[in-house]
Amino acid sequence: MEYRRLGRSGLKVSEIAYGNWLTHGSQVEAAAARACVAAALDEGITTFDTADVYALTRAEQVLGEALRGVRRESVEICTKVFWPTGPGANDRGLSRKHIIESAHASLRRLGTDYIDLYQAHRYDHDTPLVETLRAFDDLVRQGKVLYIGVSEWRPEQIAEALQIADRLGLDRIVSNQPQYNMIWRVIEPEVVPLCLREGIGQMVWSPLAQGALTGKYLPAAPPPRGSRATDGQGSGFITNFLADDVLRRVQSLGPLAEEAGLTSAQLAVAWTLQNPAVAAAVVGASRPEQIRENARAAGVRLDPSLLQRIDDVLGDQVVADPAYIPASSTNSTAAARARLAGRDQDGDTVAGGSRQDA
């Protein structure tokens, strides 16, 4: 395993991070979750990513239990706040009330005194940004949070947050967590250049395009039993990556992976790590061997000619239009559903959008 600084902060994270979206407390039993976390630690993975909303708060508890007994200073625990965690009007968003209450609840579930990286899971148009940033800053000053980040924020939202923080002397954002993989590259035109200038690192999720880039899904064939595509909860996130044209091109990536001495999954994860803005690729797993396979992508350097051949194979299936980054809390769900269904908000057709499937 290799480790990278998270942006220009002093925090180092493992190139491969372990995430438990759609797994812990939901698809994976507690014993299997503990086995996956143990395998991650054995591989040198020190960065663990979760969120209060995953499995309706259960995922944080499962991760905390799996890490019990591990030297706290040897791992980086990352979690998030924004999505509803209860029925009340204030059980959601990025108000001071919800941030502070959610942080305390996450600390209890994770069984820790502090969170290494606390992330705004989406942007909240309903709360003044200065209120959100002051609440995060207070948690940092109290020692309950060490660093703050965001997830799926647009470049203008990140830029405004940095301007406010600099003007008021508040703690700065050090990370962004976007979806990013060979097919879904919407952060490249605008988010990545801004973050490189401002010292913000990317901890990317779905480096395997929900599993479509593993090569196990075949065009014009039913998905394998037990895969993300057959799961009632996870299938909606992978559907549009399973278009036959996408899958045919993914099959053509298999020989390129073999040339590099990698599996298709390892090639996909390693591809994300070639971007200098990326600090870590967040992968999930339902079995320890999946973690071990993905961990082999750490430290891999891909030849520029191979990167070009990957682009040539994927061709027009690559989505790089930054318009598909959710604009706000009010339309992000609708936009994401439309995107994953293969249509933009105007109804025009587009491409693109754990377990090993993450």
TrEMBL record:
<dbReference type="InterPro" id="IPR036812">
    <property type="entry name" value="NAD(P)_OxRdtase_dom_sf"/>
</dbReference>
<keyword id="KW-0560">Oxidoreductase</keyword>
<keyword id="KW-0521">NADP</keyword>
<dbReference type="InterPro" id="IPR023210">
    <property type="entry name" value="NADP_OxRdtase_dom"/>
</dbReference>
<comment type="similarity">
    <text>Belongs to the shaker potassium channel beta subunit family.</text>
</comment>
<protein>
    <submittedName>
        <fullName>Aryl-alcohol dehydrogenase-like predicted oxidoreductase</fullName>
    </submittedName>
</protein>
<dbReference type="InterPro" id="IPR005399">
    <property type="entry name" value="K_chnl_volt-dep_bsu_KCNAB-rel"/>
</dbReference>
<feature type="domain" description="NADP-dependent oxidoreductase">
    <location>
        <begin position="15"/>
        <end position="313"/>
    </location>
</feature>
<dbReference type="Pfam" id="PF00248">
    <property type="entry name" value="Aldo_ket_red"/>
</dbReference>
<feature type="region of interest" description="Disordered">
    <location>
        <begin position="339"/>
        <end position="358"/>
    </location>
</feature>
